[in-house]
User: Fold AB hydrolase-1 domain-containing protein from Penicillium arizonense.
Amino acid sequence: MASLGTDAQSYEGFVENGGVRVHFRTAGQGPLLLLLHGFPDNGETFKAQVAEFSKKYTVVCPTLRGFPPSSVPDDVDAYDLSNVVGDMITILAHFKAEKAIIGGHDFGGAAIQMLALMRPELVAGLILINTPILPRFYDLVNFDEGQQKMSEYTIKFIQYQPGDEKNEADVVKFIRDTARRQEVAEYMRSSPMHGMFALYKKNYPGPPYGQNVDTSHMRFQVPTLIIWGVEDEYFSPRFLDQLLQHFLAPTRLVTLPATGHWPFQEQAEKVNSEIWSWLEMLKLG
Assistant:
């Protein structure tokens, strides 16, 4: 593992899961708090949260498989969410954590929901930030015209082949933080993107819509905090319907007006405050 500086508590490294190397950055000491990014992004997206929560937690920010410097497998099947879940379990084992607070944004939020469903005993608390709520996701994309319109951008991702135009300026256009938008655009330009798009090929419903998916088993048994920027450009507010049917443990919903898909960047202080409040309520902070 390579040092990130003079602070011995901050470093980066890799774990290996089934031949796939998964990169992570970590800072701080204390109980484990894992934060998983989405697309278009990487493990550096949670800078404001790392700075804040590393005061009391070991904050770990993995880089999704398909996103350098993590491995970029060519096999689309390697990007099934169950494999991403395996990556996260490997990281928890690396840090010898019996349980962790696990947060995720966008695709990272979908992966950690799968982790909470498959291995709830590993999850002390779940933080979901503008991510598709899985029990609602399949129905909305398949049957809701509004969400289908919002999901049109994924059709190009699903159809992407290596060598196609990356169109990174269009990919990052909704990142409201100008500096971060430029950072991510450069990351996209310098990285292969077939692995990133494979997450969509393997997991995101595409045309023809109208497929029925049984989500009756998707019931969350862990305490959950949902933070939602109400101007999300990718996900309909209808994702927040029927939460009581799917989240059976204490669950808090925080909606942030005038905020888009990246509330933890756009309103970092407010988001951090809400996370601290929730952790304190659960006696986890």
